[in-house]
Amino acid sequence: MSPVLPIDAVLPQVIAALRDAGRVVLQAPPGAGKTTRVPLAMLDAGLTTGRILMLEPRRIAARAAAERMSATLGEDVGGTVGYRVRGAAATGPATRIEVVTEGILTRMLQDDPELSGVGAVIFDEFHERSLNADLGLALCLEVAEAFRDDLLLVAMSATLDAGPVADIMAAPVITSEGRSHPVTPKWLERPVGSSGSERAVADLALTALGENAGSALVFLPGEGEIRKVEALLNGAVPNDCTVAPLFGAMDFKAQRRAIAPAPSGRKVVLATSIAETSLTIEGITIVVDGGRARRARFDPSSGMSRLVTERVTRAEATQRAGRAGRMAPGVAYKLWTRGEEGALAAQPPAEIEAGDLTGFALELALWGGHAEEMRFVTPPHEGRLAEARRVLRMLDALDGAGRITDHGRALARLPLHPRLAHMVMRGGRRAPALAALLAERDPMRGAGVDLSLRVRAVEKGAPDAHAPTLVRIRQETKRLARTVSGSGPDDIGLLAALAYPDRIGLRRKGDAPRYVLSGGKGAVMPQGDALASVRLIVATDLDGDPREARIRQAAPLDESDLRATFGGQIAWETLCAWSRREKCVLTRQQERFGALVLQDRAWRDAPEDQVALAMLEGVRQLGLAPGKAAARFLARARLMPAPFPDFGETCLLDTLEDWLLPHLSGVRSAEDWKAFDLLPALRARLDWDQQQALDQAAPAHFETPLGRQIPIDYSGAQPAVSLRLQEVFGVTRHPVVAGQPVQMTLLSPAHRPVQVTTDLPNFWASSYADVRKDMRGQYPKHPWPEDPTQADPTLRAKPRSR
C-alpha cells in the first residue's frame, strides 16, 4: 500500500476542478507527491479516454517519474505508464500516462494541432519556466479554444507564483499545504570569503555529515564544480559514505546509480539543479546548498544561449531544502548567512526573458501565430524577438514577410538550434559532428582557438581532450547522422560560416590579431595563437565583452569559399561619409560582405552633393565656429524678436540641411571648414524685408563723423564700438542703436583705450580735461582742443610748423 502523502488531501479538489473547469493550477511544496499522484488520480477518476501527457523539464526526471508510477501500479515501464525523451522511449499499446520532456509536446502540436488521442496535458515543475513549457502552454490554450474544448490542462509547481498562470489559463488555484516531514534550516554564522567556492562547500558537507545521520544531497552549479568537490571529499568523508555525482550529461545508468539507495551505509550525492525537481533520491535527509545556480542566458556575442553561474534565488533554495524532507525529517545547510537570504532574488528569470528566442521564433512561425495574440505568462520582448527573426531570415528560414520557408520547416524538425540545423541541412558528412561539438562544452579548453583541433579529436581522439565530453559528442553525432545526410561542403570553416554568417571575421590592419565581424562587432584573438595571422576566420565562440569580444573558438575561412557560398550577399558599395577619426569626408568604393570590406579603393568622382551632405556631420562634430564677421551677424540676429528666424546655435545645427548645405561646395575637411566664410550662408536665411528690418533695428556699423563705418559689437550687454577719440570731436549727442546707447571705447592715437563711455556729452564736460592733460604730453603732434565739442573730427596729426 502506498504511503499517505500531503497531496492526497487535495486530490479530490483537483479532480473536481478538472470536471468543472477542465483546468487547474496546483501548488504543492517539495515532497508533497504531486508528480506521481496527480496523473494516477486523473486516470483512476476516468476524466478522459485519451492519453494523459505529463511534461518534465529533464530526461532523468521523466524516466524516474514513469518508473515510480509504474512501480506503484506493480507494472514495468511501458505498460500503463511510459515515457518518451530524446534518444529513448518506453511506451506500448496500453500506455495511458506518458511522461515526456517539454520539447516533445511542441513537436506533437506542430505535427497534429488537434493532439489526437491526447485527453490531458500536465505541465509539471512549471516554475522552471522553460521556453518549451511557456510555448507549450500557449499552444495548448489555442488548441483547446479552437479544436479541443475537452482538453484538460494542469500546471503544477512547488514554488510557482500561481496568479499570472491561473489568469491566462482561466483556472482555479488549489494549494497543498505542508510537506511529508519537517526540514530544519541551518545558516552560516558569518559570510564566507568566497561564497560558493568548492572548498567551502566540501567543508560544509563534512560538517553536515558529522552532525547528522542519513545521506546527503549537495547542490553545485555544474559538472566542473562537482568533480572538484568529489576530489576534496574522497578520503575525507566518514567510512560509511559513498560519493556519487549526478548531472545531466551523465549516461542514464550512472544517473540511476546516483538516485538509487546506497547498497550499504550512506551516500553523498553531488548534484546540479537537476535534483531540484521531481527526483526522489532514496535516503536523503541532509541537503547542503552551495548557493549557486547555472542557467541559460542569451549571449549576443556567440549568437546562442550560454550558461552563466549566478546566486541561487529564494524559490530555488526552498525547492532544494525540500529535498531533505521527502522521506523523513531533515536538515538543510546553506552556504550563506540568515541575513544574506533576504538579499536573494525571489524567483529565477523565465527563459523567455533571458534565453535565446531564435528557436522560439521559428516554432511561432511554423505554428503561424503571432506572439502578441497568444497567451504567454510572460510575453517575449519585442526587440529580442525581432532580432531572433532577423537571424532566421539570415538562415533562409523566414522570407522577407516573416513567413516560414520550406527550409525553415525542415530546420524546425531537427532537434538543434536553428543555426546548427541550417549547417547540418546545407553541409556535408562532417556537419553532424560539428553541430554536436558546437552544442556541447569545449572538450579541449586551453588548447588554442582552432576549431579543427576539436573536430579531429571527435573523429580520431586526442590525449588532452575531455573523454566524457567526446563520448557525448560522438553519440549525438551518430544520432544526427541518422536523421539527416547532407551533400554540401565539409570544410570546417565553411561549415561554421553556414551556422554563423554574422560571425565571419576579417583581420584588421596592424600587428594585433584584431578582427571585425560581418555582423559589425569587434573581436580579438589571443596573441600568439596559431590562427592569429589568418585573414578570414569564423568565430564560433566568444566571450561576452560588448566592446571587443575575445575569440575562444574559430576556424579559418578561404575567401574563395566565402565568395562561392555568399556571393549573392557580396556587393560593391560607395562610401561617402564623415570620418570622426580622420576629420574629413571619406569617399571610397568598397566590396563588402556585411561589415567586412573585402576590397577598397578611392572614389575619385564622388558627386559634390553627396560630399556636401556628408560634410554636415563634420560640421556637427566640429561646431559652427563662425569668424568675426559671422559672429557679429549672429549677435545682431539673436537680438531680433519672434517671428524673426531663430539664429540660436541649436536651431542652426538642427537645420544645417536647409541653410548650409547649398553653400558647402568644395568643403571636405576640418581645414576647409576652418577657412570657410559662414556669413553668406547665414545672411541667405533672410529675405530682403528681413534683412532691412535687421539693418534698421540692429545696424551692422556705426558711421563716424568722417564717414567711416565701424562694426558694432553686439556680443556684450549692449552694443559697442571702438574708435579714435579725435574722430568724434564735435559730436554732442551720444549715438543710440537697438534702443540702447552705444558703449564707446575711445582710443589714443596709438589705438590704446583711454576712456569707455555711454554718455559722450558728459565725458566732454567732465573727464576729457584730465585725458587731454595726459594725452598732450604723450601725443603732442595730435590735436587736443580745449573744447572738443567745437572742434572738427580728424584722424590726422597737426600740420608741421614751417
TrEMBL record:
Residues 776-802 are annotated as: Disordered. Gene3D superfamilies: 1.20.120.1080, P-loop containing nucleotide triphosphate hydrolases. Residues 205-368 form the Helicase C-terminal domain. Keywords: ATP-binding, Helicase, Hydrolase, Nucleotide-binding. Residues 15-178 form the Helicase ATP-binding domain. It holds the Pfam family HrpB_C. SUPFAM superfamilies: P-loop containing nucleoside triphosphate hydrolases (SSF52540). GO terms for molecular function: ATP binding; helicase activity; hydrolase activity; nucleic acid binding. CDD domains: DEXHc_HrpB, SF2_C_RHA. InterPro entries: DEAD/DEAH_box_helicase_dom, Helicase-assoc_dom, Helicase_ATP-bd, Helicase_C-like, HrpB, HrpB_DEXH, P-loop_NTPase, RNA_helicase_ATP-dep_HrpB_C. This is ATP-dependent helicase HrpB. The lineage of its organism: Bacteria, Pseudomonadati, Pseudomonadota, Alphaproteobacteria, Rhodobacterales.
